[in-house]
User: Which sequence fits this backbone?
């Protein structure tokens, strides 16, 4: 267990050294953050799309919540991370896909809408246009009422208010943890009309 975690940290550091902007962290997220970002996801959600799983900390938390491995669609641009994920989670769909082109994940869902999107992408570093592509693509694949979850190291919502309004989305900070380096917050995005219905409206 300790050895696996150590080798994941080394793998992470290598990927970061190769592409610091894309990986955007020198070590995997903590188990505490993984629990926070996955705590609203359950097996009844159906298929779950994970964006930027890296070494799979959030993937393991999703499995611990009872999501079936075959219901996981893992979208990852880094080849060594993909190899590691495919070896550890043989029933999951591991896609070599840029998360800004999420339409490419539709086939892995086999016609079913996704029940949740859990994102480890460095959204803050991606810039407005790419952020919009990720969010549009995610909500094109999400079932009505379903949500996307994103963590951030910043004090505010990682997606600016004007972009949320333009996409018809509402953002709500649902939690955070100090037990992560650096400390992180978790945000939930939903379609605006659905957030109003649920009484959870909060625009960043
Ligand atoms: C900050 S790391 C998070 C990894 C993991 N979720 C965690 O929390 O430990 C960002 C991950 O997103 C991946 N990534 C970055 N941009 C991406 C993109 N456009 N499409 C797919 N994956 C991307 C990186 O390769 C990396 O695995």
Assistant:
């Amino acid at each position: 267990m300790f050895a696996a975690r150590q080798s994941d940290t080394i793998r992470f550091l290598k990927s970061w050294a190769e592409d610091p902007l894309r990986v955007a962290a020198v070590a995997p997220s903590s188990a505490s953050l993984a629990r926070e970002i996955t705590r609203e996801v359950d097996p009844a959600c159906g298929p779950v799309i994970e964006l930027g799983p890296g070494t799979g900390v959030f993937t393991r938390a999703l499995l611990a919540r009872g999501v079936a491995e075959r219901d996981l669609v893992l979208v990852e641009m880094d080849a060594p991370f993909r190899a590691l994920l495919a070896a550890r989670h043989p029933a999951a769909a591991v896609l070599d896909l840029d998360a800004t082109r999420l339409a490419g994940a539709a086939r892995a869902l086999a016609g079913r809408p996704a029940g949740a999107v859990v994102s480890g992408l460095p959204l803050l570093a991606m810039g407005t246009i790419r952020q919009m592509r990720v969010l549009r693509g995610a909500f094109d694949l999400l079932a009505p009422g379903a949500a996307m979850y994103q963590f951030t190291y910043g004090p505010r919502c990682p997606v600016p208010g004007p972009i949320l309004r333009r996409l018809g989305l509402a953002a709500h900070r649902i939690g955070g943890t100090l037990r992560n380096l650096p400390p992180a917050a978790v945000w939930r995005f939903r379609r605006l009309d659905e957030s109003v219905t649920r009484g959870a409206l909060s625009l960043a």
Residues 22-25, 28-29, 51-54, 57-58, 75-78, 81, 98-100, 120-122 surround S-adenosylmethionine (CB under 6 Å). Residues 2-18 form the longest helix (17 residues). Residues 21 and 30 are 20 Å apart (CA to CA).
